[in-house]
């Protein structure tokens, strides 16, 4: 058995094309502002890709670059200014932030209707009661991938490895909203392989290269690999999953790179359009 590859690049491209057509029919273009504090290399690359794809679909995107040593007070003033600007539909603060800035305070200063990352308490609260407005992009992208490849979610055993506020917890909630039976595992979980071996859908966001081997999965499982780990020995990116071996028993599997990553940006663009619609009262 050889797993079918879940192609995130191809799916993201399809979504961007759909968004481009949708935006062409709007009265005005949605506008996105990305706040980048400091010079984190990974953040620089990620923001550059956001700008590229936003422009491709017709979203007006600008990056506000702020110095590493900016005070939290000044950063909050910048967010408040964007909140008040009626032309701005989406606000995103690129993470991580410098250690002297309180990430929680900054994220929750963003107006909920402009929170295109879906990280504010308000939007997470809506997600928790099954009424999401703006949802964290990576988990949302994973659900979209599963649906695009017609992977049944309802009544399936789904195991999420990782309990972060960005991926693990919202991922579990989205799976629950799709009627899966969900188990969350983490660093303190005992007998991990016994739990994951019962999963119909396994989503890993551990951050350990090739951690998930064949003993962790059963035949016919769908495997979603969220992690991007640098293999310095071979100078390449790898995921949590031992792809070569697990792909021999799985039914579906995402590659790294080219799986979940492209979907995160695609969902950011989709959230920006959704935020525009919410503000224009085009949706409830």
Give me some keywords for this one.
single chain, 284 residues, alpha/beta, six-stranded parallel beta sheet, three-stranded parallel beta sheet
> What oligomeric arrangement do these chains adopt?
single chain
Gap between N and C termini, in Å?
Answer: 46 Å
Percentage of residues in strands: 15-25%
The largest beta-sheet arranges its strands as 1-11-8-7-5-6
Care to count the β-strands?
Answer: 11
Mean pLDDT across the residues is 95
The geometry reads as: globular
Helix content: 25-40%
Rg calc = 19 Å
Main beta-sheet annotation: 6 strands, parallel
| Run of helices and strands | EHEHEHEHHHEHEHEEEEHEH
Short structural summary:
The radius of gyration is 19 Å and the shape is globular. The protein has 284 residues and is an alpha/beta fold.
Explain what the structure shows.
Helices cover 39% and strands 16% of the residues. With 284 residues, the chain is of the alpha/beta class. The protein has a 6-stranded parallel β-sheet with strand order 1-11-8-7-5-6. A 3-stranded parallel β-sheet has the order 3-2-4, with helices on both faces. α2 packs across α10 (261-279). The radius of gyration is 19 Å and the shape is globular. The chain starts with a strand and ends in a 5-residue tail after the last helix. The model has no long low-confidence stretch (mean pLDDT 95).
How are the secondary structure elements laid out?
Layout: E1 4-5, H1 8-24, E2 31-37, H2 41-57, E3 60-66, H3 72-84, E4 90-93, H4 103-107, H5 121-128, H6 137-148, E5 157-161, H7 168-177, E6 181-185, H8 192-196, E7 201-204, E8 222-225, E9 229-231, E10 236-238, H9 243-246, E11 252-253, H10 261-279
Parallel strand pairs: 1-11, 2-3, 2-4, 5-6, 5-7, 7-8, 8-11
Antiparallel strand pairs: 9-10
Helix pairs in contact: 1-10, 2-10, 6-7, 6-10
């Amino acid at each position: 058995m050889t797993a079918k590859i879940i192609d995130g690049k191809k799916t993201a491209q399809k979504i961007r094309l759909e968004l481009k057509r949708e935006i062409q029919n709007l009265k005005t273009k949605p506008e996105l502002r990305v706040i980048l504090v400091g010079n984190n290399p990974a953040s620089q690359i990620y923001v550059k890709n956001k700008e590229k794809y936003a422009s491709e679909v017709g979203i007006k995107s600008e990056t506000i670059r702020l110095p590493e040593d900016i005070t939290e007070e000044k950063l909050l003033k910048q967010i408040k200014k964007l909140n008040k600007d009626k032309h701005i539909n989406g606000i995103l603060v690129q993470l991580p932030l410098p250690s002297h800035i309180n990430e929680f305070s900054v994220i929750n200063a963003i107006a909920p209707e402009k929170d295109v990352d879906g990280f504010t308490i308000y939007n997470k609260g809506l997600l928790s009661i099954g009424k999401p407005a703006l949802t964290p992009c990576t988990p949302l992208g994973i659900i979209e991938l599963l649906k695009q490849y017609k992977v049944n979610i309802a009544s399936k055993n789904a195991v999420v490895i990782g309990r972060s506020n960005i991926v693990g917890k919202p991922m579990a909630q989205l799976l629950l909203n799709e009627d899966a039976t969900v188990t969350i595992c983490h660093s303190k979980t005992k007998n991990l392989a016994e739990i994951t071996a019962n999963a119909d859908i396994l989503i890993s966001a551990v951050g350990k290269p090739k951690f998930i081997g064949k003993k962790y999965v059963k035949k016919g499982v769908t495997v979603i690999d969220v992690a991007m780990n640098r293999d310095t020995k071979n100078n390449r990116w790898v995921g949590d999953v031992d792809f070569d071996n697990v792909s021999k028993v799985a039914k579906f599997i995402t590659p790294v790179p080219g799986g979940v990553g492209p979907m995160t940006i695609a969902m950011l663009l989709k959230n920006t359009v959704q935020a525009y619609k919410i503000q224009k009262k085009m949706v409830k």
